[in-house]
Design goal:
Helices cover 46% and strands 15% of the residues. Strands 3-2-1-4-11-10-5-6-9-7-8 form an 11-stranded mixed β-sheet, sandwiched between helices. Helix 2 links the parallel strand 2 and strand 3. The model has no long low-confidence stretch (mean pLDDT 89). It has 334 residues and is of the alpha/beta class.
Length: 334
């Protein structure tokens, strides 16, 4: 299995990317990694490995580059090259922690959509209090959506959770302002009806306040709403831990209490740690394209590589292709 990695994407590139790559090479003996980037900047962190190939690139797609044009204009950038590697079958999947918009646009332009997929969706696994996590999509690939798009998101998310997380009948929920069947706007009401018609284990509407309690295994929404929920969760989690730390360090008495619950607090933080869950996958493309968090450390890059490895190993894209083809066939014969 060959994976193409953008060594120049993200806030801590190339060091964190390369450190994550070596962690993955150590744990996954079946993978070969092609690392793309500016070699002179990567050299201080590199060491020889029989399953690592380094490809020098003269350009880098930056965070301020125009997403729609970056990959097309910077043809020798590390991001463009990892996408090219997938297109030419030199790699089975690709991963970048760089410019999200550019990676999504490049994925659509170069890798291409699975036939029948109206709009690809950005999906990631988010933490829950029981440590199991849930898959949420769309997280920003499309600001607007139609009911049939949400139906396809649910089908793709269901396949991913079955294949990668080995859950036999994932509970699918539609993010809404209430749990009653008739709640929501025109989009969610129409999507609710379409989801009821599928063979999915559709649990109905779910509220944002219940997401971290594990109310569903797959949560579907439009990209605008999904992105706001994602950033709200990230911000809230970070703020709560900062406030807790400040409170526990305020007095000698609280510091002593902190020592007593230190291991419990670490366990809680690990449960809510995004670095454990990998990156965000762009579902609906011909091959796995993984977007790691821009602030990813080595652990997060390792987890994103693990995610790419599992998507390839379980042939997620081919299964999505078959499911969408089946859906189209049923629709045409109704």
């Amino acid at each position: 299995m060959k994976l193409a990695i953008d060594g120049m994407g993200g806030d801590h590139a190339p060091q964190s990317i390369i450190e994550g790559v070596f962690l993955a090479l150590e744990d996954f003996p079946t993978i070969e990694i092609q690392l793309y980037g500016q070699q002179e900047k990567m050299v201080p962190y590199l060491k020889e490995h029989p399953r690592l190939k380094v490809i020098d690139c003269s350009e880098v797609v930056g965070g301020d580059d125009d997403p729609a044009r970056a990959v097309r204009r910077k043809k020798d950038s590390s991001m463009a090259k990892i996408l090219d590697a997938v297109v030419t079958n030199e790699a089975d999947a690709c991963l970048s922690a760089g410019n999200t918009g550019a990676l999504m646009a490049g994925g659509l332009y170069k890798v291409g959509r699975i036939e029948g997929v109206a709009r690809p969706a950005l999906a990631t696994t988010l933490p829950t209090v029981d440590g199991q996590g849930f898959l949420m999509l769309d997280l920003g690939a499309n600001a607007e959506a139609k009911p049939e798009h949400l139906q396809q998101y649910a089908i793709m998310g269901d396949i991913y959770v079955k294949k990668v997380r080995a859950q036999q009948a994932p509970r699918v929920g539609l993010l809404n302002i209430g749990t009653e069947d008739n709640k929501g706007n025109e989009l969610t009401k129409a999507a609710f009806t379409l989801l009821k018609e599928t063979e999915l284990n559709f649990e109905g509407n779910v509220e944002a306040r219940e997401l971290l309690n594990g109310v569903a295994d797959v949560v579907v929404t439009d990209g605008f709403t999904g992105n706001m929920v994602l950033k709200s969760l990230e911000g809230t989690a970070g703020t709560i831990f900062s406030m807790l730390k400040e409170a526990l360090m305020a007095t000698t008495k609280s510091k002593f209490a902190a020592m007593l619950v230190k291991n419990d607090l670490r366990s809680l933080k690990d449960k809510m740690d995004y670095t454990e869950y990998g990156g965000a996958a762009l579902f609906g493309l011909q091959a796995p394209v993984i977007k790691a968090h821009g602030s990813s450390n080595a652990k997060a890059i390792y987890s994103a590589i693990r995610q790419a490895h599992m998507m390839v190993e379980h042939d997620v894209c081919a299964t999505i292709k078959d499911a969408i083809a089946k859906q189209q066939h049923v629709k045409e014969n109704d």
